[in-house]
Amino acid sequence: MINKTECYNDALQQVRNHRHFAIEQANALRDKLLTEHCELKEIENRLIALSKEKMAAKVCGDRSFAEIEKEYIKTKEKKQQLLTQLGCENGEFSPVFNCNRCEDTGLADNQLCECVKKLAHKKMLDWLCKDIPAHEFNFADFDLSYYQEGAERNHMESVFQRCQSYSANFNPQANSLYLLGNTGLGKTHLTLAMAKEIVAKGYQVIYCPTQSMITALEKEHFGHLSHPVGDYYRNCHLLILDDLGTEYLSPVAQSALYDVINQRILLKLPTIINSNLTPQELEKRYGERLVSRIFGNYTVLSFKGRDIRIQKQLASKKI
Ligand SMILES: [Zn+2]
């Protein structure tokens, strides 16, 4: 499993690699322009000579320092004008860094620069979000014709619209959702379509089978992770737990699950849970405490119909 140190080391390396790249690019551009433009080469040589003259003028001085300085400034302006004409954006041969604060060294005021911290945080989230197969699911592909015409389809159409509107209007204070229904009724499809749109808006979304989160939190509990991951589950903009009710339940798992769900409610951060467990079944499995937190705070969307996967299989056999 990836850990926080690895993320920070990777991030620092990436920032420093960019520094090398930026310097190499600047040097290559400098060499190219000096080779191709004699006038620029002459100006550059003149600037070097004037720098030496300035130093000499300070010591003994054939010409006055002020006179040399005046010519130096004038020559430098000429160089910058010429570089701008040649399309050199910053009018100098300076490297273009991503972070002006640390100039891509990764360190500012002898501390890790914010740019490294931001990048490390993003890497950790990317790793946690890597299970989102969102590219496979869109709202446009959701086919309502699999639901029986009449009350069932009307109901599912309203569920579909609720999900669309949830992602369209998403903000980190949005409601939490409990998507309830048997396997194969489109819960994962709509959840991933929502995740895709919300990720595209720039929010941090963690999607994972409940079992994956439980495993990570158990490892953290027993000290098997060098750095904790729990905060990512507790604090991301949207946590999506797929298939609640299929995971292996130990007392540690139960307490870890309650802790994440409860913390997110206290922080007013939204969670989407997919499950085929009714409130009664959920209570039997997890106890009254967790069930009352979920059903006291989540909006329930119930899915109706017949297993779409089985319907598709039957349809393909007919052909
Ligand atoms: Zn920086």
Please, could you describe this protein's structure?
The chain is of the alpha/beta class. The protein has 2 domains: 4-107; 130-318, P-loop containing nucleotide triphosphate hydrolases (Rossmann fold, 3-Layer(aba) Sandwich), CATH 3.40.50. Helix content is 58%, strand content 10%. It contains 12 helices and 7 strands. It has helices spanning 4-36, 38-59, 65-85, 114-128, 151-168, 187-200, 210-221, 230-235, 251-266, 279-286, 288-297, 308-318; strands at 107-108, 111-112, 176-180, 205-209, 238-244, 271-275, 298-302. The strands form 2 sheets. It has a 5-stranded parallel β-sheet, sandwiched between helices. A two-stranded antiparallel sheet has the order 1-2. Helix 9 (251-266) links the parallel strand 5 (238-244) and strand 6. Helix 5 packs parallel to helix 6 (187-200). The longest helix has 33 residues, at 4-36. It is elongated and about 95 Å long. The two termini are 45 Å apart. The mean pLDDT is 86. Zinc ion is lined by residues 99, 101-102, 108, 113, 115.
Brief synopsis:
With about 325 residues, the chain is an alpha/beta fold. The chain has helices spanning about 5-35, 40-60, 65-85, 115-130, 150-170, 185-200, 210-220, 230-235, 250-265, 280-285, 290-295, 310-319; strands spanning about 105-110, 110, 175-180, 205-210, 240-245, 270-275, 300.
Helix and strand arrangement:
Elements: H1 4-36, H2 38-59, H3 65-85, E1 107-108, E2 111-112, H4 114-128, H5 151-168, E3 176-180, H6 187-200, E4 205-209, H7 210-221, H8 230-235, E5 238-244, H9 251-266, E6 271-275, H10 279-286, H11 288-297, E7 298-302, H12 308-318
Parallel strand pairs: 3-6, 3-7, 4-5, 5-6
Antiparallel strand pairs: 1-2
Helix pairs in contact: 1-2, 1-4, 2-3, 5-6, 7-9, 9-11, 10-11
Bound molecules: zinc ion.
Zinc ion is lined by residues 99, 101-102, 108, 113, 115.
